Amino acid sequence: MAKTELREIYRCDICGNVIEIVNTGSPSLVCCGKPMIKLITKSGDEGKEKHIPVIEELGDKVIVKIGSIPHPMENDHYIVFIEVMTERDIFRRELKPGDNPSAIFNIKKSEIKEVREYCNKHMLWKA
Ligand SMILES: [Fe+2]
User: Fold this and answer.
1) Residues near ligand 1 ion, CB 5 Å cutoff
2) Which of 20, 26, 72, 103 has its CB surrounded by the most CB atoms within 10 Å?
């Protein structure tokens, strides 16, 4: 039987619940009585300028900005979280409307495997 994979993100199209897999198991995830949808990280679609994370070194740290044109941070449209992933760790900054669409992470750029962000309207994007 197929299994979920670590770090996959699933969403309920009805209520907007978003979950991340932290331990693998059956992929039959259900919310509001319907199967949850596995989100595929986007990187080249329309709107990429406002969604693809931009990673800049800040000494031993990095700042991740969403995106090359700053993403809106309005009540009905904003970046919900930014995640920086290394081989073994995930660092997540949760954001709210009114925040800057960016976050500083105490990690060296060379350790980063992937950076992704979740927009409440336009879903999941990666650098
Ligand atoms: Fe967006």
Assistant:
1) 119, 121-122
2) 103
CA distances from 62 to 4, 6, 7, 19, 25 (A): 30, 24, 21, 26, 33
**Per-residue pLDDT tens over the stretch 21-47:** 999 999 899 999 999 999 999 998 899
Can you tell me the distance from the alpha carbon of 97 to that of 29, in angstroms, rounded to the nearest whole number? Answer: 29
**In angstroms, what is the span from residue 40 Cα to ligand 1's centroid?**
15
Q: Which tokens sit at 118?
A: 């979740």
Tell me the whole-structure pTM to 2 decimals: 0.95
Task: Write the CB contacts of 45 (distance below 8 Å, at least 6 apart in sequence).
Answer: none
Q: What is the pLDDT of residues 44-99, one digit of tens each?
A: 889 999 999 999 999 999 999 999 999 999 999 999 999 999 999 999 999 999 99
Q: In angstroms, what is the span from residue 120 Cα to ligand 1's centroid? A: 7
Residue 6: partners with Cβ closer than 8 Å, 6 or more residues away:
21, 22, 23, 24
CA–centroid distance, residue 32 to ligand 1 (Å): 24
Q: How far is the CA of 62 from the centre of ligand 1 (A)?
A: 22
